[in-house]
Amino acid sequence: MDTFLAALFSGTSRGAIYALVALGLVIVWRGAGILNYAQMGQAMFSTYIASTMITNGNSYWLAFVVAIVVGAVMGVLLDILVMRPLSNKKKTELLSSESMRAAIPVIASLGILGVLQALAGIIWAAEERGFPAPYAQEGFTVAGNVMPFTSFDVFVITVVLTTLALTTLFFKKTGVGLAMRATALNSEVARLSGIRTNFTRSLSWAFSGAASSLAGLLITPTSNLSPNTLDLVLIIGFTAAVVGGLDSPAGAVIGGFLVGMVISFVSFYGSPEDVFLAILAVLLLVLIIRPRGILGAKDARRV
Amino acid sequence: MLEVKNLVTSFGSVVALDGVSFTAQESKITTVIGANGAGKSTLLRTISGLEHATSGSITWSGKSVIGMRAEDIVRGGIAHVPEGHAVISELSVEENISMGSLFRRRKFKADVTAAQDEVFELFPRLKERRKQLAGTLSGGERQMLAISRALVSRPKLLLLDEPSLGLAPLVVEQIIDSINILCRTTGLTVLLVEQNANTALGVADHGVLLSLGKVVADRPAAELRADANLRAAYLGY
Ligand SMILES: Nc1ncnc2c1ncn2[C@@H]1O[C@H](COP(=O)(O)OP(=O)(O)O)[C@@H](O)[C@H]1O
Ligand SMILES: [Mg+2]
Fold it and tell me: Structure pTM?
């Protein structure tokens, strides 16, 4: 029973973070039609910046906010400096096939991941370092028993759920949110409605950058920080996004929690080495049974 | 006045518009007719900024729109309802409509509401269905929605691409009537593209006949309609 509860709690707090990562991937996928492999590289980079700030005596909270802003700014820069020029039809006219043209930004994002990891290695040295949590990471004690749930877990879940709720409200209730959804769903109709789609697309990148930086800040206290530590998180987040349906933000969140649970239960009841296999099994299972994911649209418009 | 001069638009080696010139008078309905592939859609898409002209000029009220981005051309008062009931199926009817006035929502808050009420008055069926997803609407309702989305941007010039395509005759009549009323009562300028020449010429003041990217006739609508030779040669009936 204790193991079960421990797995459940850990799955919830891990799942919350994966939901955030998956949401970041889905928003850029919908908004720009690009799978951004550099996403957790951006998160790693901004978490390093936060780490350096804290080491230099700044408060955790200042570093926290700066890292998220840096994540958003990096997203926008990536869009404006790399992705927008690359998806310019005129400049890529030489490539005859549509799928080749679509592959360019994806390859570019892989390249940027490599550059970010190399840069981080040069600036901060490649060995692992710890990253602080703002709240205790020891379990609560109830009637003398140590529970498998920490104040930090409560913090993680609260922050993520609040972020998800605010995001939903933003997309559903504000004009800018409507403009972003319209751009993602049909950019030609959006432009004909007077929506500046370059701007709304950059906003998607900003949002995704901020969300993944937040995920980086929340996961590194339990996994340490190195240029490559977030690679696995990207793979898990990607699995979560595919499981939920790559074009569905709500699906990304469900997928995140689901994958978090699977990972947690496998590592509590099996061995940590089985985790990667379990993720692959989930991914394959979904791709075979329901390729569009739990909430994905029927016609995979952008494949 | 909309003035198109020597307009050329090509896709690679395909010249879709091959030196098109005509004018559309303000507060009138001008229709562009022609067979499939004549270049009608390309003409509208070039005016609204979705395609780039290779050469030639397009001016609206004396101002050139060449080189402007589509999103800025709408803001300048030219709204385009593209071919094929262009609405966003995953958004509600209400959201599709307010999408068209997002850029005006700060400066003209009261008028945005007024514009929305007006299109609901014009197409009451949309009002009943305003919480529904656009994807659940019938073809006719979708066309009404696409037109509404364009109207709430308060255009001076409305570009309509085959609004009758795939719709039942009764619905076509209803939509064409609404456009006619709008033009006559509000002074809206309309550029109506149709393959359905009879319907279009019946309502329009002026007609431009396009064939393989060239203007082959540019005359008052009634005259065009009466010309059996032209009809036989270019429209095939
Ligand atoms: N995006 C495009 N790429 C290549 N050719 C196009 C494109 N759009 C239109 N064309 C070509 O331009 C010509 C005119 O097309 P279009 O303007 O759609 O005609 P219409 O609307 O009168 O049926 C056709 O030969 C068509 O094949
Ligand atoms: Mg056409």
Answer: 0.90
Chain-chain contact of A189 with B88 (C-beta, under 8 angstroms): yes
- Alpha carbon nearest to ligand 1 atom 18, residue: B41
Q: Per-domain residue ranges for chain A?
A: 2-124+150-289
Beta bridge partners of B64: B59
Residues of chain A with Cβ-Cβ distance to B44 below 8 Å are none
* Contacts of A222 by beta carbon, 8 Å cutoff, 6+ apart: A133, A137
pLDDT (mean) for A132-147: 78
Nearest to B88 among A175, A182, A297 (CB): A182
Q: Give the closest of A178, A182, A192 to B74, CB-based.
A: A192
Q: How many CB atoms lie within 10 A of CB A59?
A: 11
Residue B90 C-alpha, separation from nearest chain A C-alpha, in angstroms: 8
Give pLDDT tens digits for B168-209.
999 999 999 999 999 999 999 999 999 888 889 999 999 999
> From atom 26 of ligand 1, which residue's Cα is the shortest distance away?
B37
Residue of B231, B192, B226 lying closest to B211 (CA atoms): B231
Reported as type and span, the H/E element at residue B9 is strand B2-11
**Ligand index nearest the alpha carbon of residue B40:** 1
Closest CA to A171 of A21, A15, A26: A26
Q: Residue B93 in 3-state DSSP?
A: helix
pLDDT digits (tens, 9 = 90+) for B83-95: 987 899 999 999 9
A83: Cα within 13 Å, side-chain hemisphere: 28
Q: For A299, phi and psi rounded to 5 degrees?
A: -90, 110
**Is 70 exceeded by the pLDDT of residue A287?**
yes
What is the distance between the alpha carbons of residues A214 and A204, in angstroms, rounded to a whole number?
A: 15
Share of residues in chain A with pLDDT > 90 (%) = 61
- Closest to B194 in 3D by CA, of B79, B28, B34: B34
- Pull the structure tokens for residue A261: 């649970």
Query: B173 CA distance to ligand 1 centroid (A)?
Result: 27
Across the interface, of A193, A196, A297, the residue whose CB is closest to B153 is: A193
ipTM value for the complex: 0.94
The rounded distance, in Å, linking the Cα atoms of B8 and B17 is: 5
Task: For A224-267, write each residue's pLDDT tens digit.
Answer: 899 998 999 999 999 999 999 888 889 999 999 999 999 999 98
CB contact under 8 A, A188 and B50: yes
The mean pLDDT value for B229-233 works out to: 79
Name the residue of B7, B11, B51 whose CB sits within 8 Å of the most ligand 1 atoms, as the mutation to test its pocket: B11
Instruction: Please give the CATH number for the structural domain made up of A2-124+150-289.
Output: 1.10.3470
Please list all protein residues whose beta carbon sits less than 5 angstroms from ligand 2, which is an ion.
Answer: B 41, 83
Residues lining ligand 1, CB < 6 A?
B 11, 14, 16, 34, 36-42
